[in-house]
Design goal:
Number of helices: 2
Shape: globular
Strand content: 15-25%
Helix content: 10-25%
Largest sheet: 8 strands, mixed
Number of domains: 1
Order of helices and strands: EEEHEHEEEE
Structural class: alpha/beta
Number of strands: 8
Length: about 160
């Protein structure tokens, strides 16, 4: 069972979306330079479908997307949660931020509208850096995913 530590409505994680960000604990990636080391610990509240509904209901009128931040310790459950959100809250898009370099075989990409992959590597920078190793992909209408990382870069 995955646990979450906190949530927030954010505007920079997913371009053009008002995103409910859910920070999931017990991160196995342990990236050097991580800005959220508290998420390395197995702490927080179990992230169940009932809990997801309660979190969404608190801010539903304001959000267009739910982004699961982490969960690499149990990608199968992340997939289950994404499917649940799409079925139960069909107007909301679903994103996942993974610190892994490849998408787990436990993930059915059709359950997601956005997927970010890649560990944080300090000297390469985060998504806003043109040298980043991290990539954010958006699902297009044909079901294929397009790299939209450059949307974070200032022109």
């Amino acid at each position: 069972m995955l646990k979450y530590v906190n949530t927030g409505v954010v505007f920079q994680e997913i371009p053009d979306e008002v995103t409910l960000s859910i920070n999931i604990s017990n991160c196995p990636c342990r990236c050097p330079g991580c800005h959220s080391k508290y998420l390395w610990e197995d702490i927080g509240t179990p992230l169940t479908s009932i809990e997801i509904d309660a979190i969404i209901d608190k801010c539903n009128q304001d959000i267009t997307c739910v982004c699961l931040m982490g969960g690499d310790s149990n990608p199968s459950y992340i997939n289950t949660l994404a499917e649940y959100i799409h079925v139960t809250h069909p107007k909301l898009k679903v994103g996942w931020y993974s610190g892994k370099t490849i998408i787990s075989s436990d993930i059915n990409k059709s359950n997601f509208d956005y997927i970010k992959i890649g560990p944080y590597i300090r000297h390469l920078g985060a998504l806003k850096s043109k040298t980043t190793n991290q990539r954010l992909y958006k699902k297009e209408t044909n079901g294929e995913f397009t790299d939209i990382t450059s949307r974070f870069w200032k022109k």
